[in-house]
Specification:
Protein name: Na+/H+ antiporter subunit D
Radius of gyration: 24 Å
Order of helices and strands: HHEEHHHHHHHHHHHHHHHHHHHHHH
Strand order of the largest sheet: 1-2
Shape: globular
EC number: 1.6.5.3
Largest sheet: 2 strands, antiparallel
Oligomer: single chain
Structural class: mainly alpha
Distance between the termini: 9 Å
GO biological process, one term: ATP synthesis coupled electron transport
Number of helices: 24
Number of domains: 1
Enzyme class: oxidoreductase
Strand content: under 5%
Subcellular location: Cell membrane; Membrane
């Protein structure tokens, strides 16, 4: 028994409760939230070190051993994901300072952020199927609040559809859990694996397995992703980055754990379904990315492609592909968070979210442009960046399993990712700056700034006219915004936010340069996926 196992869940939970008492004190909320996130990251790293050196770590809640009580189980796979999720969320939290707005910060943004982290970490660490449902609900309720904070029309519309879909999937989840308990008499994951193997997977158990596939596919955005583009586009960039990095990964984790531990016995049914859904997801995601002209929508469809890519590795389910699943999940958390943070800064710089209204950003924000290019190449799997190692292992697994069609679709989708993101980079940073309201404000701001530097050479009368000219330009931009609807006043990205993105970009590069270490970690994490008996023995021997 190791109490360290529950700390990644307990620390954000306690931090969230503490933050509730300081609703109006924004600066104190930031400090407490950052301290809590840092403490959680330290606990996750310590847990990762222990699982790496001493094997699977367990904690039976209330002293009730498995299979009778709720057991939190940290194998190396879960510990890696918890650590990566907590560190990535820390960057999203740092970026949120000064970008989400004081109104959101006063309406419990930081407590909901921490509650969401408690749900995410609990989902990765629980060894009980019903407790997985509880952790899912904690993170979903928190995500509803984070999505709707701000109360804009787009947020309300996206929240409504997002809630309805997740209420449906949660209802199906409870039904599937009830059916499985009725058949097997247990909900402990390790014990379920034993009972299902004894009964022989087939008949009603295959029906239940498909029901779980539908539930977790809805949550992960696997084929049933119609809710995702609008939901992840509505909130501020820090929240979108958090959702893109973590929420679909929890659904993917549930799929991986379910179909490697509970239902691996009849791949001719379950894994064939996963394969078809993976292929369709990659194709439809590629079509959506090609058709989109909105920055965040392009990035959202790239999430969909990534979900299909990981599901391809699960469908193949050999050693190489499962190692690739682990490697790619770690990469995708960091890379997707980075892309969304940079996308938010691009929109802030341009004053518009449509590609047609962007251009010339490289002259105003060169560091932003080059970081976006690095993130784009990493997402596409270009060596030596972080996406290459995971994609290589996934493709290797596909070829070993003679799954040539899915492998070809995966290669094609990678080319689409590269094309759409590089196209976005070229148009936004190197394209001609279009005339419009955003351009008017930028031009006027530059003109007034240059004129201010020459104030000494001008008369007092001239100096007094400057505010009027600037006001007229802003008024023109506001009127144009009312008629066009998409432009906002451009604002320079703060140096602090660039530093946050820069450090995360460095991590993405280092994950690629250190791919040998990453591959070793992925191989160790995949050991319990390839051979579930290791996980089962560690849990049930207690």
């Amino acid at each position: 028994m190791n109490n360290l196992v529950v700390l990644p869940l307990l620390l954000p939970l306690c931090t969230a409760v503490l933050l509730l008492f300081f609703k109006e004190r924004i600066q104190l909320q930031r400090i407490i939230s950052a301290a809590g996130q840092s403490a959680t990251a330290i606990a996750c790293v310590l847990l990762l070190v222990q699982t790496g050196s001493s094997g699977i770590q367990l904690l039976a809640m209330g002293g009730w051993a498995a299979p009778y009580g709720i057991v939190f189980t940290a194998d190396f796979f879960a510990a890696l994901l918890v650590t990566a999720a907590t560190i990535t969320a820390g960057f999203c939290l740092a970026f949120s300072f000064g970008t989400v707005g004081s109104e959101r910060e006063k309406f419990y943004f930081y407590p909901f952020f921490q509650f969401l982290m408690a749900g995410v970490n609990g989902s990765f660490l629980t060894g009980d199927l019903f407790n997985l449902f509880v952790c899912f609900e904690v993170l979903l309720i928190s995500s509803y609040a984070l999505l709707v904070l701000g109360g804009t029309k787009g947020q309300l519309r996206a929240t409504l559809s997002y809630m309805l879909i997740n209420i449906l999937s949660s209802t199906l989840f409870v039904a599937a859990v009830a059916y499985l308990y009725g058949v097997t008499g247990t909900l402990n994951m390790a014990h379920l694996s034993v009972r299902i193997a004894e009964a022989g997977q087939g008949g009603i158990l295959n029906v239940i397995a498909v029901l779980f596939l539908i539930v977790f596919s809805l949550k992960a955005g696997l084929f049933l992703f119609f809710w995702l583009p609008s939901a992840y586009q509505a909130p501020p960039p820090a929240v979108s980055a958090l959702f893109a990095a973590l929420l679909t990964k929890v659904g993917i984790y549930a799929l991986v754990r379910t179909f490697t531990l509970l239902f691996p016995g009849d791949p001719g049914v379950t894994h064939v379904w996963i394969a078809w859904m993976a292929g369709a997801t990659m194709i439809l995601g590629a079509v959506g990315a090609l058709a989109s002209k909105d920055v965040m929508r392009i990035l959202n469809f790239n999430i969909v492609i990534s979900v299909g890519f990981v599901a391809f590795g699960l469908a193949v389910a050999n050693e190489a592909s499962l190692q690739g699943v682990v490697f790619y999940l770690l990469h995708d958390m960091a890379a997707k968070a980075l892309l969304f943070l940079l996308g938010g800064m691009m929109i802030r710089e341009a004053g518009a979210d449509q590609l047609s209204a962007m251009g010339g950003l490289i002259s105003r924000a060169p560091w932003l442009g080059w970081m976006f290019l690095v993130a784009a190449l990493a997402a596409a799997g270009i060596p030596p960046l972080s996406g290459f190692g995971g994609k290589l292992l996934l493709l290797q697994g596909g070829l070993q399993a003679q799954s040539y069609v899915l492998t070809a679709i995966s290669l094609f989708s990678s080319l689409i990712v590269l094309y759409t993101l590089v196209r976005l980079f070229i148009k936004a940073f190197w394209g001609e700056q279009p005339a419009g309201p955003a351009t008017a404000v930028v031009a006027e701001a530059d003109r007034v700034s240059n004129a201010a530097a020459k104030t000494d050479a001008r008369t007092d009368a001239d100096a007094q006219t400057k505010p009027d000219v600037a006001a007229n330009a802003v008024a023109f931009a506001t009127a144009a915004k009312a008629s066009h609807g998409s432009a906002t006043q451009p604002r320079n990205t703060s140096r602090g936010h660039l530093v946050v993105a820069g450090v995360l970009c460095l991590i993405v590069v280092l994950m690629g340069v250190g791919s040998e270490w990453m591959a070793q970690a992925a191989a160790e994490a995949a050991r319990t996926l390839v051979d579930p008996s290791v996980y089962i023995e560690a849990v049930l021997k207690e």
